[in-house]
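Readers outside the structure-tokenisation community will struggle with the description of the input data as it stands. For illustration, here is how one protein appears when written out as sequence plus structure tokens:
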Amino acid sequence: MKQYAIVILLFSLSNISFSQNLVLNEKEYFETVGLNVWVFNNEYNGMFFDEKTAGIEFIHHGVRTVTGGAIRLQNTPEQWDLIPKMTSRKVDKVNNTIEVTLRYEEFDFDSKIIVTSKGKGFVITVILDKPVPKKLEGRAGFNIEFLPSSYAESNYLADGKAATFPRYPAGNTQMQPLSQKIPQFAGHTTFDDRGRNEFIVTHPLASGKDFLFAPENPERTVKIQSEDQEILLFDGRNLGQNGWFIARSMLPSNKTGKVLTWYVEPNAIPNWKREPVIGFSQVGYMPNQTKVAVIELDKNDKALSSASIFKLGEDGKFTEKLKGDVKVWGNYLRYNYAQFDFSSIKEKGLYYIQYGNHKTNTFQIEDDVYSQVWHPTMDVWFPVQMDHMEVNEAYRVWHGKPFLDDCLQAPLNHEHFDGYKQGPTTETKYKPLERIPGMSVGGWFDAGDFDIQTFSHVSVINSFVESWEQFKVNRDETYIDQKTQFVDIHRPDGQPDLLQQIEHGVLNLVAQVENIGHPVRGIVVPNLHQYHHLGDASTETDNLPYNPSLKPYESNGVSSGTMDDRWAFTNRSSFLDYRTAGALASASRALKDYNDELSAKCLSLAIKLYNEATEIEKKAKPDNSPMSRWGKGSDMIAILQLYLSTKDQNYKKGFLDRIWKLLDENLEFNINSALLAVPSMDDSYKVKLRSYVIKYKEKTNKENTDNPYGVPLVKRGWGGTSQVINWASTNYYIHKIYPDIMDKEYVYQGLNYIFGCHPYSNLSFVNAVGNRSKKVAYGNNRADFTTIAGGVVPGLIFLKPDYLENKDDWPFFWGENECIIDGGAWFVFLANAVNDLAREK
């Protein structure tokens, strides 16, 4: 067997041409054709900890396949395990070296990593000024992580012995005493230790000093050689489905200076060029719409002079209908771009784009091409997100009735996860960990997890009301019964689904105000081992109210001693009060003829919240924090919605007294409120607003010229799909009010971006919408590597200094793939807005 492995190794190496020397470029990362090596261009996140977007990383033949190169304290670190803080980074272009210093404050432990180009690869050196602290002996090591979707079912060689990267985690594990576990964030733990005071430790798949990964795949081949310490290969998926393959060497005890040296040599295919990405709408186009494909090219590639459009004929064959010029746009971030305008093609039918040897999949040109694109979002995605309901679809049960155990008041001075915190008081009538009754009603799961985020609910309700009032969306494809808490997808019940969803969201907001006393930051599970729960939401708790007189996991049939009930984080803010007041006021109008009793309650509570928030603000100290500045105008949203619902002239006066100042201070944040008010104001208001609209258009036009897609591309760690949708929706309102200022193409442009005319790939960012759409998403079913139809993913994250990414083979990047409720609601509005424009003559 060993001889066979050596033969494979020699054969593989004979077919691999390793890269030219890596050099440091002006963007401060190592580069050669087909390979980029980043050294802490991106840092570990202090809020969400290890997001697999930091440390030493590879962009290998255009794809990020390696991440997390750093000193870590576990064989297979999980998201909430401690991360090192980078305290310094030095780039030495003369010597082709990057040096970073890392620190674990909790253990007073510093280390230095030096990465130096050498030959056709690079050397990683770990240097310690002081020995590894006693508590970290046998625990601190250098890790680097390899993406399972890039390496599973490939082979590797460890000191010449061949083996296979498993498709599914299959390594060995063992239990160790909990006292030996390195603490996780703020005392939380990802491990459910019921019944045993132990935790899981993974065993290596293989060990050696000389590894070769994926020798049969030149695009992914990587050689790693250790000069001193043994290399261990682990499978992180044994602890969490989002784990990666990890190459790790332990740091020796009682040693300083150079303690670890690796030589790493990723293969780079000679003269490699990334395949062009032809961005276009996977949904298609209307005949008279502007149609521009954006072609994304490797920086070493030059645009061809022309491209063609082929149409399917009655004979079943495709024939060329247009051969047009390709216009060079220029460089954006790391790629070159060109554009191909085929707007002259207006005949209805089925088409594809041909660019050189590259042919796209087919797409349609039809009058009603956008008419149904929002149906999966309302028919499937939102029903699946419904909390406190059993949700059925044909033969499938998405989840049972979850969280029937209400919730508990969060404890004082508590730092939770996912940004939740409770201050020194509850600001409610409840004592810490006291049960809050009446909360097992309404609401949606915020995203891929199962918490109630109040502000997201506010955004959804406001957007749904806009869709109802602007377009009277009366589609009925879902059976929703609040009495039995049952939902059946694809089963009409005679009521508009949109109104039923507004009702469902409102029920939870009303419950918060009536039972807690005011809107709360959110309601979330108490334990980290619950928070990462995947699958059926009804199994995240025992659905029995907590009873402190019972022992853990003990039940009397109606309550239990298990502390698994969700906690309400009840710190009060005038910002949230105002925004909730605005949502309830708007919902009161939509629900007037559907649920008159709930409608009246919404309006009454909205007035109450607005008055209380005003009093809170009068007593509050001046606050110039970024959040406070961002929230300016929230009271105006409430005032406007209260005026629209009551026609009380005092609200109108309050709105007009402040809206112009707010537009001057933050035009983009407040322009939507100003536009929504137009139908209820006189002509002078519309005339005055016109200059602000012109200024808004000029500002956004200037900002959007920096990219070839002409939309607001967001450069951050959470994708910008929602920003594009909201930009296009604002453009819709402007077009309807001032058609001479804003052309309808500014609306279509945003939707086309969402449907595939964007960087990195040409997949539709709406699951199951378009000829080619996302295959995976970060939902409660993410471990199944699938999607929930109609979910809108965040899209492209930005990794410094120049990389936009949206992976479709790895669902666990929430910044790229996590569908959120307000993003779905905004998409429903935009899709209906485009259909409204399609009816314009």
Notes: The CA atoms of residues 744 and 840 lie 10 Å apart. The chain has a mean pLDDT of 94. The radius of gyration is 28 Å.
